[in-house]
Amino acid sequence: MKNKETVLTSLQCLKTNAADRPGSVSVPDYKKNMKYLLKHALFLMKYAHVYVLFLMLVCHTSCGGQNQTNVPQDSFSKEHNGFSASQLKELAASKVPVSMVRNVKQDRNGDILIAASWGGVFRYDGKSFTNLTSSKIGSHRFWDVLEDRRGNLWLASNDSGVYHYNGKTFQHFTTREGLVNNRVMAIYEDRAGIIWFGTGGGLSRYDGKSFQNFTTKEGLSNNDLTTIMEDKTGKLWFGTRGEPCFYDGKTFTVLKNKDGKAFKNVWSIIEDKKGNIWFGEVGGLWRYDGSTFTKVSQRGAYAIIEDKKGNIWTTGQVNLQAWALSRYDAKSLYNKMPTVTEIKSEERTNFYGILEANDGSIWFGSGNGVYRYDGNTITDFKGKEGQK
User: Model's pTM, two decimal places?
Assistant: First the structure.
C-alpha cells in the first residue's frame, strides 16, 4: 500500500506542477508524461523498491519548475521565476525580443510595440528594435502594452504593477497609488478615455486622477482577469480565469451558454464588423450574436483578431503537443466546418498575442520571441534575418 501511495503521489506532483509559469493555458508535456506514467503505473508499483529513487527525482524536477537543480534557489531567483541576475541581464541586453511575448500592439506612428517578459518593452520602427525599459526601470515581467489617445504608453507587468511613459519619464502605479493588485494582465482604454486594468486581484478603473476598483464584492465574476474589450454599445467585456462577464456601467453579468453553463478560462474577446462577439478558451473558439452561442471550432483559441478582409485569426493549442497560428476564412465562417489554414505550428512552443499591422502583415508572440507573417514568409526575429 505504501508503494502504491508513492506512485500516486509522484503522479499528482507532476499534475500539480505541469502548468506553465503563471498565465499559461496548458503544457503539452504534462499530458504526455501523465499518459506514460499512468500506462506503466502497475509496473512501477510492482517494482517500486527499485524505482523509488527515480520517482523522487521526477517529482523533485517537475515540482521545482524549469531550470531546477539540487541547489536551492536564492530569493532573487524565486522572485524572478527562476531566472538568475545574469540571465535577466542577458535578456535585457538582447537586440530583439527573445523571451515570452504575450501581447503585440501598434502605435499611431505605425511602430510595433512588443511586451516581452523580463526582456523589456520593445519598439520596432521597421528597421530595428529599441528596448524602452531595460536601462530605465529594470527587468520586469511585462505582459501588455497600450498607447493611449494622448500618445502615452502604459506598460503592464505581472510583478510590479503598471508604468506610464510619456516619452521622457516613467510614472509607476502600484497598490500604494490605488491599483487593486500589482499583477496586471491587461490594459484597455475605453471610448471616454478611461484606462482599465485587469489584474490578478480584480479590476481597476483610472480616470487620470484616481482609481476605482472592482472585485467579486462589487459583482465581478472572478478576480483573476485575462482580457478587456468594449463593444459598439459601450459594454465592457472581461475574460477571466473563471467565468467571463460584461459590465453595462452598473451591473456585471456572467456570460453563459445555451445550456445555462458559464464559460471558463476565456483569454480573448473581440467584436467583429457585424457586431458578433468572439471569445476563445482552451476548449475552442466561440461566436455570440446576442442570443445564440455557436462553437466554431474545437481548436484552442488563446488570442483572436479579425483582419481587414474579415478573416478570423487565432493562436492556441490544437492538439496535445502543438500550438498554432490559424486563419479562418471569412467566406466560410458561418459554415458548419469553416475553412481553417494553419499558418505555423510548433511542438513545445506556445503562441500568444496577435496583431494585424497597417501593412497587412500578421505579428504574433511566442514563448521565446516574436514573429511576422507577410502572407508568404514568416520572419523569426531571433534569426539573422530578423536582427539586421
Answer: 0.79
